[in-house]
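User: Hi! I'm working on a homework problem where we have to compare a predicted structure to a textbook description. Could you give me the structure for the chain below?
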Amino acid sequence: MSNHTSDSPSTMTRKGYEKLMAELVELRSTGRAEISRQLEEARSFGDLSENAEYAAAKEEQAKLETRISYLEFQLSKAKILDSSTIDNSSVTLGTTVTIQDINNSAEFSYTIVGSEESDPKASKISSSSPVGQALLNKKVGDEVHVKVPRGVRHLRIKEISVLA
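Assistant: Happy to help. Predicted structure tokens:
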């Protein structure tokens, strides 16, 4: 997780903001209620000093409260992108870029997002990831070479668009 001490805004899309907000609401209500139930059940087993269930529930509670605190912090400093003001003449946060792998001609698209809403399985990559950084500020037709764990990828930007 990110450094809690940074006061710089966390830029994200409206969808990303809403997803984090929904997670926060869920954790505050259902998550806390479930941990409370687990703690109550563990207390019923007796001596808390040797109660593994109680220790496990307390650990889960600590993780839950840490995540809630983290989400509250991130949402409090969030700057939501206005898709109507995004310029698609170059790759920026909030744009979807279609790229072609020069080595094998495969094409794929990524939406460039802030690190808080990065989800590679959903084709959303962080602007701070190696590929995201390499693509930022590039234009259609530009070629980039990105060092990734499996070597260097040679990519050509085919299209840049903004989703509403």
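For your comparison, note the following. The longest strand covers residues 151-162. DSSP finds three helices and seven strands in the chain. Good luck with the assignment!
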